[in-house]
Amino acid sequence: MTKMTRRNLIRISAPTVRVGQRSDLSALDREAEKQNREAREKIRRRYFPDVIVTTHEGKQVRFYDDLIRGKTVVINMMYAECEGVCPGITANLVKVQKLLGDQIGRDIFFYSLTLKPEEDDPKALDHYARMHGVGPGWLFLTGKPADMELLRVKLGFTYPDPKLDKDKSQHIGNIRYGNEPEMLWAACPGQASPDWIVRSISWVTRPREKRT
């Protein structure tokens, strides 16, 4: 999922079913559903390890089954004691959350994954969320260091330069957003205009025929 933007947004789906002979429609529907399931499973295996993570509320959940499957989501990486881009991106996403209103936690879900799980336990993440005025529908996630690193790599929050990639103070400030059922995924800068981020997210939530 590296280097995704709105221009090269990925979509893998089953072919559109066209109504031809009515006797064939049921078979076409079944084949389309089968291809859709297979495509989603390929994406899941490649990008979304179903590891156990813990929310800032202290609840253990599975990353894919509980947080990603069937949802539209916004994902970023951060850590509580970050003195770089984290506070600015969090503050920016709070503005995005307010613009989206009651869609958050109902139609769209925000997830912030810690880069330093060895430091960021649920208590530290809860303090961070409260300090920044984060509202409902936005979870801060921690877990085993190996699992959080696996998520970082699979989600594409990496630099090609190994030395730069190891420096967490210089971590990527992008956000990922996507519609899992529709298999639409993209990215944008976390410090972009809140209005622009909302418009970008809305592209993957609009009905297919209305996307332009």
Q: What would the keywords be for this entry?
A:
7 helices; 40% helix; alpha+beta; single chain; 19% strand
Please state the overall shape, judged from the principal axes of the Cα atoms.
globular
How far is the first residue's CA from the last residue's CA? 23 Å
- Rg from C-alpha positions? 18 Å
* Uncertain runs: 2-8, 10-23
Give the class from helix and strand content and strand pairing: alpha+beta
Largest sheet, in brief, is: 8 strands, mixed
Q: Could you report the average pLDDT, rounded to the nearest whole number? A: 88
How much strand? Answer: 15-25%
Task: Supply the number of helical segments.
Answer: 7
Sketch the topology as an H/E string, one letter per element.
Answer: EHEEHEHEHEHHEEH
User: Based on DSSP secondary structure assignment, what is the total number of beta strands?
Assistant: 8
What can you see in these coordinates?
Helix 3 packs across helix 7. This protein starts with 9 loop residues before the first strand and ends in a 7-residue tail after the last helix. It has an 8-stranded mixed beta sheet with strand order 1-8-7-4-5-6-2-3, with helices on both faces. The chain has helices spanning 22-47, 63-68, 86-100, 122-131, 145-154, 162-166, 194-205, and strands at residues 10-11, 52-55, 60-62, 72-78, 108-114, 138-142, 174-179, 184-189. It has 212 residues and is α+β, with helices and mostly antiparallel strands.
